[in-house]
Amino acid sequence: MLIEFFNQKNNSFKKVNLILASFFFSLMTVCVKKIDTRIPIYELVFFRSLLSLFITSMIINKKNLNPWGKNKPLLILRGILGTIALVCIFYAIKNMPLNISTVIQYTYPIFISIFAGILINEKINKNLIIASITGWLGILIILNPYQLSSLNIELDKFTVLIAFLGAISTALAYITVKKLSLTEDIFIIIKYFPLISVITLSPIVFFNWVTPNINDLIWILGIGMFTQAGQTFLTIGLKKLPTSEAARINYLQVLFGSLWGILFFNELININFIVGAVLVLLGTIISTSKKLKKI
Q1: Which residues, other chains included, contact 1 with Cβ-Cβ below 8 Å and sequence gap of 6+?
Q2: Are 237 and 21 contacting, i.e. CB atoms less than 8 angstroms apart?
Q3: Residue 175 to residue 292: CA distance in whole angstroms
Q4: Is the predicted pLDDT of residue 293 greater than 50, yes or no?
Q5: Residue 183 DSSP code
Q6: Residue 283 lies in a domain
Q7: Cα distance between residue 74 and residue 119, in whole Å
Q8: Angle 186-207/41-62 helices, nearest 10 degrees?
Q9: In a domain, 11, yes or no
Q10: N or C: which end of the chain has fewer CB within 10 A?
C-alpha cells in the first residue's frame, strides 16, 4: 500500500513537470506576441535559436560527444523542418489571435499519425480516421466565417495557411527526430535545430537588421528563458512517462494560450470556439492513443 502511494506520488511529480513545461511554453508565446511588430519574425527566431545553440553546445562539450552526429543529411533535414516550423508558428502568433494560433498548432499530432502512415509505413487504422475527422470538424467550427465575425476577428487565408504549415512542419520534424533517436544522442538532434536556424537566418538578419529597444530586449530575453525552462521541464517529465500520456498533458498549452489571450490581449471566446477546441483536442487524444503509438 505504501509502495503504491509513493509510485502515485512519483507519477504525479512527472506530470507536474509537464504541466510546468506547457505553462512556460505558453508564456513564450505571450512574449512573441508582445514584441513590437517592427521586429521581424526571422530576427526573433534567430535570437531564440542563438541562445538554444549556445546552451546545447555547452552540454555537448561537457558530455564529450561528437558535435556533428552520424546521419548528417537527416540531421540537417530535421533542422530545416524545425526552422520552417518555428518561423511559421511565430508568424501565426503575431498575426492572429493567440487562442486560435495555439489550437491550429496543436493539430500536429494528427499530422504525425497521417505522415507516419505515408512515410514510414505505419498502419492507418480506424482510430486515425476518426481522429482526423474529429479534429478537422473542430477546425472548421473555429475558422467558420460566421463564428469569426461574431468575435470581430478577421483572418486572411495566407496567415491560416502559414499556421497549418507550422503544424505540418512540426509533425514532419517529430518523425525525423524519432528516426534519428535510434542512432543519435538527443542533444545532437536538439543542436541541429538551432544550428540550421542560425546558419540560414544569419544573412537575412545581417542585411535587414532592426535594433531592438529595451522593451523588445526584455521580451526577447523572456522568449529565451521561458523556452529553456519549458525544454528543461519537458525533458524531465518525458523520461519515464508514457509518450501518449505526456502528449495529452501538453494540450494544456491550448488552455493556457486561451487564458493569456483573454487576460493580456483582450481576445474573446464563445461557445463555438470552446466546442471547436474540444473537438481538436479530442482528435489529437485519439490520434495519440496507445494503438497509434508505434512511431
Answers
A1: none
A2: yes
A3: 14
A4: no
A5: T
A6: yes
A7: 14
A8: 140
A9: no
A10: N
Can you tell me the distance from the alpha carbon of 186 to that of 239, in angstroms, rounded to the nearest whole number? 12
Rounded CA gap, 195 and 61, in Å?
15
Given a cut of 60, whether residue 38 has pLDDT beyond it is yes
Give the separation between CA 294 and CA 290, rounded to whole angstroms: 8
Could you tell me the CA-to-CA distances from 95 to 256, 287, 295 in Å, in that order?
18, 28, 33
- CA 94/CA 153 separation, integer angstroms: 14
**Are the C-beta atoms of residues 270 and 150 closer than 8 Å to each other?**
yes
Burial class (CB in 10 A: 0-12, 13-18, 19+), 109: buried
Report DSSP letters for 119-167, one per residue: HS-----HHHHHHHHHHHHHHHHHH-HHHHHHTT----HHHHHHHHHHH
Give 213-231 pLDDT, tens digit per residue.
Answer: 999 999 999 998 898 788 7
Domain that holds residue 243: 17-292
CA distance 282 to 264: 27
3-class secondary structure, 37: coil
Mean pLDDT of 100-118: 80
CB 220 within 8 A of CB 47: yes
Q: What is the pLDDT of residue 287?
A: 64
Q: Name the residue among 15, 1, 38, 9 with its Cα closest to residue 219.
A: 38
Cα 24 to chain centroid, rounded? 12
Tally of structural domains, the chain? 1
Under 8 Å between Cβ of 193 and 89: no
Unique residue bearing C-alpha cell 543529411:
73
Q: Is the pTM of this model over 0.90?
A: no
